[in-house]
């Protein structure tokens, strides 16, 4: 399949003004989060790209060098590519580029965090499921008026508590409204935290 706008992706229009940018975890694709997104925000537009980096054949949004060790140069380059894709997709499909919220899991949540820290114009906020602080930007972004819902597991080996809290701290210091929800769990997701994320989205989307 030839990528359009630089990414293999799918787009599903909705009746709301807002758009969800779906960012899958390692090994996912552009279809992985569509059903979940429709459950969480039935009326939103859905924009779902496939990560362009392959790790042993598994799509990701940026390279990692080892467990929890990210390739910072690649992360910055891929975040810039994704921010450009969102802007070009808004022009192609006619949705409001100022009303885009991420819904990301694991690697996708970390990419959403990178977008907020490096390209704050790309997102109004997002639901970040099992994220960590992916990098420390050289200049603090201005995130005033933006919001993030972080869902973390206290026993998650992929997202240690201190790195989750570091992300929340960076976002808050930059001016974002942050809700950090802890689950007594690992990297897997649980219905109650997804329900909480759905409520958070409903308060912000035209749904």
Give an overview of the whole structure.
There is one protein chain. The chain has 207 residues and is α/β, with parallel strands linked by helices. It has a single domain (9-202), classed as Alpha/Beta hydrolase fold, catalytic domain (Rossmann fold, 3-Layer(aba) Sandwich). It contains 5 helices and 11 strands, in the order ββαβββββαβαββαβα. It has helices spanning 34-40, 72-93, 107-118, 161-173, 191-202; strands at 9-12, 19-23, 45-49, 53-55, 58-60, 64-66, 69-70, 100-105, 125-129, 147-153, 177-183. A 7-stranded mixed sheet has the order 1-3-2-8-9-10-11, with helices on both faces. It has a two-stranded antiparallel ribbon with strand order 4-5. α1 links the parallel β2 and β3 (45-49). α2 crosses α3 (107-118). 44% of the residues are buried. The model has no long low-confidence stretch (mean pLDDT 95).
